[in-house]
Amino acid sequence: MVVKEKSARGIDTIPLSSVFIENRDIFLKGEISTEVADEFCEQFIYLLRRGNDPIRVWISSYGGSVIDGLRIYDLISSVKNIKVYTIAYGAAYSMAGLLLAAGTKGCRLMLPHTRLMLHPATFVGGCSGKLSDIRAKSNMLEEYEEIINQILSKHSGLSVKKIIEDNSYDHFYTAEEAIKNGYCDRIACIDDLVKG
User: Fold this and answer.
1) In CATH, what number is assigned to the domain containing residue 174?
2) Phi, psi at residue 116, to the nearest 5°?
3) What is the distance between the alpha carbons of residues 171 and 194, in angstroms, rounded to a whole number?
4) E-only strand ranges, the chain
5) Catalytic residue of the set 17, 65, 119, 171
6) SS3 call for 156
7) N or C, which end of the chain has less CB nearby within 10 Å?
8) 2-7 and 84-93 strand pairing
9) How do residues 58-99 score in pLDDT, each as one tens digit?
């Protein structure tokens, strides 16, 4: 999609994605994959170098790769001097839910009918091979689950034990329930967000 803007040269046609980036908005949508994480990381670092104004990360995703999601998490959570708003709209499931919780405290928002879903780490595509390979994958899955539970505990204030109990299945949270459990801070007022 493109937008048209007046300039000294007349009318310029600009990709909408460029307009969003210049306004410090990044969209994290669809499956969290290597390609999505690569693009997100490039955009995020670009904005970090362009100043200290807040960055808004708009999340609508059913989740995806744990390793790629953790790359995004590491960038978001390592920022100390810039507010990072995480705004969930539609779905923030699985790894996307963890990324919602990673925003700056007070800046983690959900639209009213958005749903957060958290669950244990899972393999996608099955697991096959030698017994030693299956054990190694199982150990890696346990390690990722422990990392995710520690991260959720850090950002929510809930104990790891409580997180394991609550999310031992596909646990869907309304915006109000996500706020109550510390994964989100408030329901978004979209007018405030789109004004910059």
Assistant:
1) 3.90.226.10
2) -100, 135
3) 30
4) 2-7, 10-15, 25-29, 55-61, 84-93, 108-110, 115-118, 171-173, 186-187
5) 119
6) helix
7) N
8) unpaired
9) 999 999 999 999 999 999 999 999 999 999 999 999 999 999
Q: Give the range of the structural domain holding residue 118, as residue numbers without chain letter.
A: 2-194
Phi-psi region of 169 (alpha: psi -120 to 50; beta: other; left: phi over 0): beta
Residue 14 has which token pair? 């600009």
Considering the candidates 61, 77, 94, 156, report the single residue annotated as catalytic. Answer: 94
pTM, two decimals, is: 0.88
Identify the residue with better confidence: 180 or 2.
180
Is 171 labeled as catalytic in the residue annotation? Answer: no
How many independent structural domains does the chain possess? 1
Q: Which of these, 66, 17, 62, lies nearest to 39 by C-alpha position?
A: 17
Residue 26, SS3 per DSSP: strand
